[in-house]
Design a protein that fits this description.
The protein has 261 residues and is an alpha+beta fold. The protein has two domains: 2-93, Immunoglobulin-like; 108-247, no CATH class. It has helices at residues 108-115, 129-143, 179-184, 187-206, 209-215, 242-247; strands at 2-5, 10-15, 23-30, 35-42, 50-55, 68-79, 82-93, 148-151, 168-171, 220-223, 226-229. The chain has a five-stranded mixed beta sheet with strand order 1-7-6-3-4, with no helix packed on it. A two-stranded antiparallel ribbon has the order 2-5. The protein has a two-stranded antiparallel ribbon with strand order 8-9. The radius of gyration is 26 Å and the shape is elongated. The two termini are 44 Å apart. 19% of the residues are buried.
């Protein structure tokens, strides 16, 4: 499927494949089926080999807070034996597909920089930019399901046990926070989130085979002369991998007394 920059003109060409239409019209809808461009007639000439539909930039603009959208172009050809419909689809995409606190905790460039100091990554270094961007978005949504505790005032986690409760901020709606709120969190917490996002993106790209088998209840597995044993009992199921949780050590909360501050 073709991808175009949002708010730019797009021309979609439909080959006629030997058809001889006497009239044609088109309309454009979005991915929800809502009309973007109402039905418009097109001029058809004898011997025409294709129909070009020109879609104006305004029809390719994005809704607020969206980074991409779909356009569905339906062409209706009227022939001597009846009407024929043709459909083409394309994506319009923002210049920046990763927007901090909209679908990521960092830019793609920041992720590339952070990943240099994460030598245990497996799939991330080998994948193309597109899949890595998509994996970062998925990781953002997974991490947003966790509940966090953050020490106010720049204290380290080693000092947490000696601090009054008022100095600890509990967060159960991280992905709903604004950019300014996110930037007000301690820098160590933000870096931990960035690295956890990359680690989780790595799992998205590679797949957590062992974790999936464990969550499915597998207690042991043998392949040839190699065997693997798991602890009995139902494992704790969290929305993110153990690899990501390692970077969030000390920040994930299991408290039920969560407040916004």
């Amino acid at each position: 499927m073709q991808v175009y920059r949002a708010s730019t003109p797009v021309t979609v060409t439909f080959p006629l494949d030997g058809l001889a239409p006497i009239a044609a019209e088109y309309e454009v809808r979005n991915e929800e089926g809502e009309i973007v461009v109402p039905s418009e007639s097109l001029t058809i000439s004898d011997g025409q080999q294709a129909v070009a539909v020109a879609i104006a930039p305004v029809a390719n603009s994005l809704p607020i807070d969206s980074v991409r959208a779909m356009r569905v172009v339906k062409l209706t050809l009227v022939t001597a034996v009846g009407s024929i419909e043709r459909v083409e689809r394309y994506i319009v995409e923002a210049a920046q597909t990763l927007v901090i606190m909209e679908n990521t905790y960092q830019t793609f460039e920041s992720a590339l920089l952070e990943a240099i100091e994460m030598p245990t990554l497996k799939a991330w270094p080998t994948k193309a930019e597109g899949p890595r961007r998509a994996a970062l978005v998925e990781a953002f949504h997974r991490l947003g399901k966790l509940k966090y505790r953050v020490v106010k005032g720049g204290y380290t986690e080693d000092e947490l046990s000696r601090l009054e409760p008022v100095r600890t901020q509990f967060i159960n709606d991280l992905n709903e926070r604004s950019l300014s709120e996110f930037l007000s969190f301690p820098s160590r917490f933000r870096q931990a989130l960035r690295r956890a996002q990359i680690a989780e993106a790595d799992i998205v790209l590679e797949g957590d085979i062992i974790g999936d088998r464990r969550r499915d209840g597998l207690l042991s597995e043998s392949i040839g002369e190699s065997s693997m044993m798991f602890r009995s009992g139902k494992p704790v199921i969290l929305p993110v991998s153990n690899q990501a949780l390692r970077y969030l050590q000390g920040y994930v909360s299991h408290s039920v007394s969560l407040t916004r501050s």
